[in-house]
Sequence to fold (282 residues):
Amino acid sequence: MSESDYSSIEHFKVSFPVEYVAHVEINRPQKMNAFIEIMWLNLKKIFDRLSDDPNVRAILFSGAGDRAFSAGLDVQAASQGGTLQTEASDVARKARKMRAHVIEFQDCISSLEACSKPVIALLHGVSYGLAIDMAAACDIRIACTNLRASVKEVDIGLAADIGSLTRLPKIVGSFSWVKEVALSAREFGAIEAEKVGLVSRVVDGGRAEGVKVGLEMCGLIAQKSPVAVWGTKEILNWSRERGVDDGLKFTAIWNAAMLQTDDVKAALLSGIQKRKAKFEKL
Fold:
């Protein structure tokens, strides 16, 4: 696929700045990249396509403009449209429709995690609410020093329901810290995010510097065997919820098939011959 295949997808920009690397940008900077309903539906559409694209091996995910990765859900638009409203009068029927709506929203954000290619989130500027949900669903998170992050949902009267409360405790080293930021909705910056393990790297500067570092990281991953990278992401995600013994058994079954790839031979020969390995597309 090419950039033109994604040009009609509203509020996003998809480019391919490096071989085998895609850059997905949330493109609503005039609203600080806040999400309306069509955007999370389009997010899933994009990442489902990239997951199946044999020309993509790694993805950088950022927000357009210097001010924000994303200010989260566009609450004003949601309150005026159908996102927070249903036509049913009975409480149980309202709850049923709302539950289906939340699950659909969750599935769209989970497409970042389900994508077969590694996704690197670049957190910069304002990163509130849904921004943390999306970042937590990505494989790697890096942050710019201008980061202003918040698990913001309690400030709009709800418990975060799109992934932060489920994923953050599995990512960071302190359950107490997760509860603190989720219950208070206070802001935290890049240094604090790195300290607790939410991000693995802090980039000195703003979005432009972060994009450069993110693309370099994606480019490095894209040089590796796509079969090995795919397997590594699958095994890590599968093992996260399970014990060591189950993880080892799953890995054995996975590699019983995947070790038969020609990529292993290509990687070994490149090391012996001191040259850069070249791998077939997925």
Q: What stands out?
A: The chain has a mean pLDDT of 93. The beta strands are 12-18, 21-26, 58-63, 68-70, 119-123, 126-128, 140-144, 148-150, 201-203.
